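=== RUN LOG ===
request id: a7f3
mode: sequence -> structure
chains: 1
length: 272
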Amino acid sequence: MSSNNLDHYYRILGLEPGASLEDVNQAYKDLAFIWHPDRVPEDNQRLRQKAEAKLKEINQARDELRSQKPKTPKPPSSPPPKPASNTYYYRAKSPRREPTQSRRYYQSREPQQPPSSSRNYYQPREPQQPPSSSRNYYQPREPKQSQRPRSQPDLSGANFQGVDLKEKDLSGRNLSNANLSQANLTDAFLHKVNLSGANLEGANLFRANLFQACLVQANLRDANLIGADLSGADLSGADLRGAKVGTGDRLLVKLTGAILSGAILPDGRIHE
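=== RESULT ===
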């Protein structure tokens, strides 16, 4: 394989040419997690197809680079131990003992007595009485009243500062202007959540699902966004200064279809 093809596969994984096999495996795990199609909702087929194509490209790059790396030889396996010389593979059976004279092999049964004349061999059953007219054999059930779905409370302006919300499902909730600074939102499901004007400074959003979330004018300073899915999210005017979005030059946040007009990027630049 030519060096140009290898350099292309290294660039797909975000690595420099000649990176070690350990770096290749780690880069593959990070990118496969971000672009896995299961993290995209089923109702968005366009994004799922794009994620499948990207994951296929990542798998091909990993396989080609692995095939070029030398494999360490395995040490020769030691032969199985031989059985000890004092091991016995056959054991003779002991002879059966002859039955003693005191054992009886047959006992005669006592003759049965004839049945007495007073025993009745047949007793006629009494006729069953017909069921009374007052007995009800079928009672129709009353229809159950339909339960109305409980309305979720409005959480706008709520104070969740420093609260542990790991793996919580807050999809579709209204958290506008809420205080979520320093909150733990690791692996939280925030699909289509309203976080406009919310304070998320220093919050941990590692691998959080923020698909199509509203983050207009949200404060995301120093927030941890590594592994987060912000596909289709609206980040207009959001403040992302100092936010963690990757390692080195590698971006580890999914921003497919996200709106960033007027947002302040982690490096302080304003997105136009």
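=== NOTES ===
Confidence is low (pLDDT under 50) at residues 83-90.
Residues 229 and 254 are 5 Å apart (CA to CA).
=== END ===
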